[in-house]
Amino acid sequence: MCTPTPPPPAPPVRDRALPVLAAALTGATLLLTVLVATGWSPLHDLDRSLADSLHRSAVAHPALTRANLILSDWVWDPVTMRALAAVTVLALWWRRERGLAIWFAVTTALAAALQQGLKSLIGRERPQWPDPVDSAQFAAYPSGHAMTATVTCGLLLWLLARSPAGDRVWLTGLTVAAVSVIGVGVTRLYLGVHWLTDVVGGWLLGALVVAVAAWTYERRTASSEQRSPDSERLTDDR
pTM here? Predict the structure, then answer.
């Protein structure tokens, strides 16, 4: 005789918050993307005004510009971020967390594909200057630097939150991630290779990718854990 199966426990608050966060980020990202694609004039004027002001500063302060170039092209470059992601995948694989490693790698790859797809679809031109201090390839929206840093740092923070690390480690990781994500956006603006909305779009899209990836993985894991006790219970009843 089978005993009645108790109702599944309510998901933790964090798991319930992830779909809400993903929905909010989806709305904000779609709105910004539509406004950028249609060339909404108030947003365009804001982009132009900030870009002009920062470019004048970059031309007038070459030492500060060189510092921004180092941070943008070496410290927070997408290649650096993807190398960090690759090391993380290898570390997870070595620890026999194969499913998590694959999930991390697939999320990173899909984020890069989404980024390039949107760049090609929208085809926004970058700021143009008679005296540029830096140059960049591909279209402007969304910022690849901002999105890649957000995805990589966001996924690493998610892994840290799932680990038994203490509050001090978590706060340190959060601080480093925040400085990296905000910092890379500031450098791209200061160097005159992106509009403000490109950077904000990269941040929003990156955060959306992380929220969706974390939510779907947690749901998949919870479903597997729920099925396992049910299977054992059916076996015992036989």
Answer: 0.89
